[in-house]
Hints:
By secondary structure, this protein is an all-alpha fold. The protein is 85% helix and 0% strand. The chain has five helices and no strands. The longest helix has 54 residues, at 68-121. The protein starts with a helix and ends with a helix.
Amino acid sequence: MYQDAYLSGKSEDARQAFLAKSPARQYSCIMAWRHRMRHSNRTTEGSEIIAHLRVARKRLSGAADINEQELRTIDTELAALRDGMSVFRANRRAREIEELEQKQSLIMERLRMLRQTGEEQE
């Protein structure tokens, strides 16, 4: 399932060396690579979601038979994913606004205190 992703960007010699290995050894190499990828550049949860979507896209393109009901269900799930992204963006924006307002409040309070102590010293 992950063979194409594993081989992408590799030289032709590396590809041939990989394909010459037994299926068990190929599987082992791919699983080790996936482990390294997940733990080395896992900066956000988004990277995991992206990886799942890429796998789903590849599985869909390689699928031999998907019935109409399953296609409708896939479409429904994709629409729900898009809706979920909109909700996530709105929530993230609201959190950022709240954080900035809190910072602004702290800055305003600090300014007030500095001005007050400056006036008292004069």
